[in-house]
C-alpha cells in the first residue's frame, strides 16, 4: 500500500514511479482517505510506503494528522517513506518517526528527493530556473532506481542526505510560526484574466475551492500547496503581491 499526498505533482510522480516499479497498485490519496475516515487494512507480508512533499522542514500537517489518527488493522511488514523537497528536509525524518510511533509503528527506511520548488509566497522565494528544475527532476529519476532496489531488499535506515543545517531551529521553532502566521487562503486574489474553467477547484487536494459566478472562491481550509496558483491556465491567481511575475510550475507527465 502506498499512501501519498501531493500538491503540485512532484510527490505524485515519485509515488507513481514507486507503485509501478514495486508492483504495488494500492495507492491511497491521503486527503481523500481523511475525508472518508477510511481505515487501513494490511494483509500478511504487506508493506507500507508513504510519499509526501516537505512543508516547513517537516511532514505536512495534514499528513501528520492522518498518520496519527487513522484506524489501522493488521501491521505492515515493512514501512518506507519518500519525501520530495525543493531544498532541505530538516527534521522531517524525526517528525515522521514520531507520527508513526503514535500508532506503535516504526519506520524502516526513509528517502528524500530534490524536486522543483513550489513555494513562492514570501519575498525572496522564487521558482527554480528551468535548467535547475530539469537538473532536480533528472537527479530524482536517477536516484529513484537505486531507492527502488533498496526498498526491494527491505533496506533499513535513514537515507536522507538533504537535512541541511540549523535543523532544530527550522523544523521545531520556525514550523509552528509558519503554520500559525503564514498558511492562509485569505491572501488569494483572482484577476479578470480568469475564464471560470474550474481547473483550480478540480485540482485542489483539500477541495477548498468552489466556483461561484465563474470565479474561484477559497473556503478557509487551505494548506498553501499552491496547486491552484500554479495550474491556472491564465495565471490569474496570486497570493497577495508576493507571487506576481514569479511564474508557474507543476510536474507534468513527460517532464
Ligand atoms: C507550503 C510549502 C512549504 C514548503 N516547505 C519546504 C521546506 O521546508 N523545505 C524545502 O526544501 N521545500 C519546501 N517546499 C517545497 C516543496 O517541498 C517541493 O517543491 C515539493 O517537491 C512539492 O511537492 P508536490 O509537487 O508534490 O506538492 C515547500 C512547499 C510548500 C508548498
Ligand atoms: S483555473 Fe484560473 S482561469 Fe480557471 S477558474 Fe481557476 S482562476 Fe479562473
Ligand atoms: S486552495 Fe489552492 S493552495 Fe489551498 S490547498 Fe487548495 S489548491 Fe492548495
Could you explain the architecture of this structure?
By secondary structure, the chain is of the alpha/beta class. It folds into 2 domains: 2-176, Rossmann fold (3-Layer(aba) Sandwich); 181-239, Alpha-Beta Plaits. 34% of the residues lie in helices and 18% in strands. The chain is built from 8 helices and 12 strands. The strands form 4 sheets. It has a 6-stranded parallel β-sheet with strand order 2-1-4-6-7-8. The protein is globular. The mean pLDDT is 97. The chain binds flavin mononucleotide and iron/sulfur cluster (2 copies). Flavin mononucleotide binds at residues 6-12, 53-57, 84-88, 115-119, 224-226, 251.
Quick overview:
It contains eight helices and twelve strands. The radius of gyration is 18 Å and the shape is globular.
Amino acid at each position: 500500500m502506498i499512501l501519498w499526498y501531493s500538491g503540485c505533482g512532484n510527490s505524485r510522480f515519485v509515488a507513481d514511479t514507486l507503485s509501478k516499479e514495486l508492483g504495488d497498485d494500492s495507492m491511497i490519496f491521503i486527503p481523500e482517505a481523511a475525508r472518508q475516515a477510511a481505515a487501513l487494512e494490511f494483509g500478511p507480508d504487506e508493506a507500507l510506503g508513504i510519499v509526501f512533499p516537505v512543508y516547513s522542514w517537516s511532514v505536512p500537517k495534514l499528513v501528520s494528522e492522518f498518520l496519527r489518527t487513522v484506524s489501522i488493522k493488521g501491521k505492515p511488514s515493512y514501512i518506507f517513506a519518500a519525501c520530495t523537497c525543493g531544498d532541505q528536509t530538516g527534521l522531517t525524518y524525526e517528525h515522521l518517526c514520531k507520527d508513526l510511533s503514535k500508532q506503535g509503528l516504526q519506520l524502516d527506511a526513509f528517502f528524500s528527493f530534490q524536486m522543483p520548488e513550489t513555494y513562492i509566497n514570501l519575498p525572496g522565494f522564487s521558482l527554480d530556473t528551468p535548467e535547475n528544475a530539469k537538473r532536480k527532476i533528472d537527479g530524482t529519476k536517477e536516484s529513484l532506481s537505486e531507492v527502488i532496489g533498496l526498498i526491494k531488499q527491505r533496506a533499513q535506515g535513514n537515507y536522507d542526505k538533504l537535512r541541511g543545517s540549523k535543523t532544530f531551529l527550522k523544523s521545531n521553532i520556525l514550523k509552528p510560526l509558519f503554520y500559525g502566521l503564514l498558511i492562509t487562503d485569505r491572501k488569494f486574489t483572482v484577476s479578470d484574466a480568469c475564464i471560470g474553467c474550474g481547473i483550480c477547484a478540480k485540482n485542489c487536494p483539500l477541495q477548498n475551492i468552489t466556483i461561484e459566478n465563474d470565479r474561484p472562491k477559497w473556503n478557509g481550509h487551505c494548506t498553501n500547496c499552491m496547486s491552484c496558483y500554479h495550474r491556472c491556465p491564465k495565471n490569474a491567481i496570486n497570493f497577495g503581491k508576493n507571487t506576481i511575475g514569479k511564474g508557474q510550475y507543476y510536474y507534468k507527465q513527460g517532464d
